[in-house]
Amino acid sequence: MNFKKQSYGGGRPVFVTPPHLVLGGFELDTVAQSLPVGTVIPAGTLAVCDESTHKVKLLKSARVTAISTEDAKIVNVEHDEFLSNLFAVGDLVHIIPAAGEDPLVEVTVAAVNEGTITLSAEIPDLEVSDVITQIKKVEDAAAFIATFNCVVIAQVKVVDGVNGVDVSKDAELYARRVLPVPSSLLTNDMLTAYPHIRYSNSL
Question: N or C: which end of the chain has fewer CB within 10 A?
Fold first, then answer.
């Protein structure tokens, strides 16, 4: 896919400098990951791209803005014209995976209404400002769904069929303008596994 743009990230730039496009063409993996038609993938979303299959899976993440006092399973997350809520019904979710969670309390998304998600059960110790992520279960512990190695360059709206997506493995992003990245994935504001993905807190 050719990619030439004067601005990056739609109406609000998310990249400090123009990102370097990974050539070859990629598509969202809507089979391995639930991405309903109409879902809007924000620019700067952390992802994993497989250069052998040319498939891309996303880090589904959101910062908690409120928890219902009547039902702690009802959670509000950041959701606006720039930062869409990517969670879908059936996603296994938790706060930042950490050692010592034994056994894992399995929580799935039961319903989604824009910036509000209803969970199948309460997430233990969940607080406002925590980052909820999609996870996978490894024995009784939570783990991220992949080792992330790239970011989505421009906003993508999921359609029925093939969904092309441009990604970068070398980019610097404004951390406050993209979906949150759990601190456990970062070292000195760089993606631990792929330090050419960097985050700036300057804006």
Answer: C
Task: State pTM to two decimals.
Answer: 0.90
CA distances from 30 to 36, 81, 124, 140, 161 (A): 8, 22, 30, 26, 9
CA distance 98 to 79: 25
Instruction: Report residue 166 as tokens.
Output: 């441009």
Residue 54, Cβ density class (10 Å: 0-12 exposed, 13-18 middle, ≥19 buried): middle
**Which pair of tokens denotes residue 4?**
């030439």
Query: Would you call 184 helix, strand, or coil by DSSP?
Result: helix
Strand duo 46-50 + 164-165: pairing: unpaired
Tens digits of residue pLDDT in 156-176: 999 999 999 999 999 999 999
Cis peptide before 103 (omega within 30 of 0): yes
The DSSP secondary structure of 32-56, one letter per residue, reads: TS---TT-EE-TT-EEEEETTTTEE
**Pairing mode of beta strands 26-28, 55-58:** parallel
